[in-house]
Amino acid sequence: MNHPITLPSPLGLSPNAPQRPRPTLAWTLALSVLLLWTSAIPWSTAAHADDLTAQPSAAQGDLGDLDPHFELELQEDASVLGRSLSMGGVAATHAALYTWAYFAWYRGRNLSPTLELRDEGFFGIDTYAGGADKLGHMYSNYALTRLTTNLLQYGGWGKTTSTILSAGLTLSFFTAIELKDGYHRNFGFSWGDMAFNGLGIGMAIIMDTFPQVDAIFDFKVEYVPTDLFIDQVVNEGLVDAAEDYSGQTFMLAWHLSSVPQLQDHSSTAWMRYLDAVVGFKSTHYLPKPVEPGAIPRQDLFLGLSLNVQQIIDDTFYRKPAQRQGAGYGALAFTNEIVAIPYTTLPLVNFSRDASELDTAEPIP
Length: 364
Hints:
Elements: E1 2-8, H1 23-40, H2 45-54, H3 68-106, E2 114-118, H4 132-154, H5 159-182, H6 191-209, H7 211-214, E3 217-223, H8 227-236, E4 248-255, H9 260-263, E5 274-283, E6 297-306, H10 308-316, H11 325-337, E7 338-339, E8 344-353
Parallel strand pairs: 3-7
Antiparallel strand pairs: 1-2, 3-4, 4-5, 5-6, 6-8
């Protein structure tokens, strides 16, 4: 349910004002880029000498027998170039996401002159998405934080700096999106969404800070577009795949390859190609079903899933030295956050549906 509060719009917008992107996110991105650029500039040779020695950029190449001062200048130039390129990649990622969000959610929507708060619940059977929206927020923040952390690290930024900057940028991005929701009718600012944004960022920080945890667990989504969503794309030009909840399954995967006892015996070594998973999905919430008798349903299951990256490693990258470079890193990261459709087998399923709800109080 929506609970509007009478906070005037800081932009003085009228409900009938022409639709346009708000400047909040644009300013956030601009300030973030400025911060990143400032951090990339080597203000002094001494301040960056240790970092350059510890993490030489791949773009430096073989400098040969050059004058030491000139060699250091080349190293600094290569370091700035790598950091600047990765900074540009992060900025482009955020800009692309904002562009998609505008066309998916805000284009043509009516504005609200006041900030509206929306209390949409969490995992109640009578909520508008059955809880998939909350896991979607968590997953989106998790994936964006990890992606931009990897981009910054690959460009030469330090591990801790990359993690902090990525987490801060992701939080700023999704906070701006939530505020934008608050000034659109029928959307609303949700503290529940903000809480799950924070959970996703926190999980990303843990994974990036503790590689031993990252080697054991993955948080990923399996997505198969529904026929209803495909029809919306073809017939109406809608691009809101984020709310195609009936096609999404969120999973926390435990790599059985991380259990040494299973790898020590030939009879159980094959289990390294499997993950034990706990998964969740909601069906017949969004997109709104058109067929009569479709009842909203939630499923929580335990099962097994293929560890696709382990299969790829053992087939094409047998030697650890081969598991290097941007191409391999992108492949491994994709398999960390995305489950290939139809590679998961639910074994124990717990489900409930909305058939017993009071029909006088339909799902919003």
